[in-house]
Write a structure and sequence with these properties.
Layout (H helix, E strand, L loop, with lengths): L2 E9 L5 H9 L17 E7 L2 E7 L9 H16 L2 E7 L6 H10 L6 E6 L6 H12 L6 E4 L8 H11 L17 H16 L9 E9 L3 E10 L2 H8 L4 H18 L2 E10 L7 H6 L7
Parallel strand pairs: 1-3, 1-4, 4-5, 5-6, 8-9
Antiparallel strand pairs: 2-3, 7-8
The protein binds guanosine-5'-triphosphate (GTP) and magnesium ion (MG).
Magnesium ion binds next to helix 1.
Length: 295
């Protein structure tokens, strides 16, 4: 019997959803960072086994939105919840239960789809601390399964995969075997650049950034990329460029290095910075930057 199904990974920002997607697929499909709201798109990771196809969907962290962009991110996550055969609700074991978790539980309550609680980051806890966390969560919601993992250290990932598979029903192969994700190389290039910005900047800057590819040229040995980093204010443009262009250079070098590794060829990356005031609140800009604002 061939099994298949859609498995959404949902949770609060920074819980480790994208790190889990990458661990499940054993490949970096989604960027990750210590900054909340790293992921802005639903990202599919398609796992092909001899007798099953598991389609995982990484989603943006569910949070209280302050911009139109934030509302759009939440909508992406809610959409995934309604379309899945299993929901993986992932929490950071080192964080205390809060109103954000309560809200998350309210979004899955009454759903007929089985929900697994994934208690992540157990590498940060002692055995006693973990037992306490598991007990607390057990009392809050009747999850179909509770699985402690470390997405970062790939601890208990195979067990999670086996459990997911055991819950899936007989089904068709939705996607061709050689398809790993629903996003193309262009998306991955712009996301890698955005990831380097997330790591190197602080406060409002990482959240105010979008990356647009303006020109890509490729031959057997070379990849040439021109990309635009869009920010919301001219002060942010100043920060991104930095003293004597030191910041933009360091972003460019870090992105170039990873792109080289990823595409296994020489990469020349050129970065430009442009101000689009208040783009996160402007419907037309959101659409242009790839965050379709379908309100
Ligand atoms: N120690 C530890 N850190 C982890 C683990 N999983 C993820 N992290 C870290 O937690 C941070 C957030 O991880 P992400 O995977 O980007 O989290 P996310 O839930 O996708 O976040 P958003 O996209 O912002 O919603 C990163 O710094 C990760 O390296 C883990 O198992 N252990
Ligand atoms: Mg993410």
């Amino acid at each position: 019997m061939f099994k298949s199904g859609f498995i959404s990974i949902i949770g609060r920002p920074n819980a480790g959803k994208s790190t889990l997607l990458n661990a499940l697929l054993n490949e970096k499909l989604a960027i990750t960072s210590p900054k909340p709201q790293t992921t802005r798109d639903n990202i599919m990771g398609i796992l092909n086994l001899p007798d099953a196809q598991l389609v995982f969907i990484d989603t943006p962290g569910i949070h209280k939105p302050h911009h139109r962009l934030g509302k759009h991110l939440n909508r992406n996550a809610y959409q995934a919840i309604t379309e899945s055969d299993i929901n993986l609700v992932i929490v950071d074991a080192a964080q205390a239960f809060g109103s954000g978790d309560e809200f998350l539980l309210s979004r899955i309550a009454n759903s007929e789809v089985p929900a697994f609680l994934i208690v992540n980051k157990i590498d940060l806890l002692s055995k006693e601390q973990l037992l306490k966390v598991l007990k607390e969560w057990q009392n809050r919601y009747s999850f179909a399964e509770i699985i402690p993992i470390s997405a970062l250290e790939k601890d208990n990932i195979q067990e999670l995969l086996n459990l997911c598979k055991s819950y899936l029903q007989e089904g068709i192969q939705y996607f061709p075997e050689d398809m790993k994700s629903d996003h193309d190389a262009y998306f991955q290039i712009s996301e890698i650049i955005r990831e380097k910005v997330l790591y190197k900047t602080e406060e409002e800057v990482p959240h105010s950034v979008a990356v647009v590819l303006e020109h890509v040229e490729e031959n057997e040995k070379q990849l040439f990329i021109q990309a635009m980093i869009v920010v919301e204010r001219s002060s942010q443009k100043g920060i991104l460029i930095g003293k004597q262009a030191s910041m933009i250079r360091s972003i460019r070098m870090a992105a170039q290095k990873e792109l080289k590794r990823r595409f296994q060829k020489n990469v020349t990356l050129e970065l430009f910075v442009r101000v689009e005031s208040n783009w996160r609140n402007r419907s037309s800009k959101l659409t242009l930057l790839g965050y379709g604002d379908n309100e």
